[in-house]
Amino acid sequence: MASLSPERRAKIAARTAALIAQEKSSSELRRARALTQTKQALPKRLASARSVFPSSKAAPI
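Below the sequence we write its predicted C-alpha cells.
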C-alpha cells in the first residue's frame, strides 16, 4: 500500500468502506428476517431457474 499514490489509497479505502457497509446491511437484513445466506439467496436461484426452464403447457401427443 505504501507504494500507491494517495489518491489510489483513498479510492481503495472508500471501496473497502462501501463493501463493509454493504455486508453489514445484508447481515442486518438476514438477522431481522431470521434468514441464513442460503435461505436469502434461494428466491434468486429459483427465479433464475424459472427463466431458464419456464413452465409451459405440455404439447398434446
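The chain has two helices and no strands.
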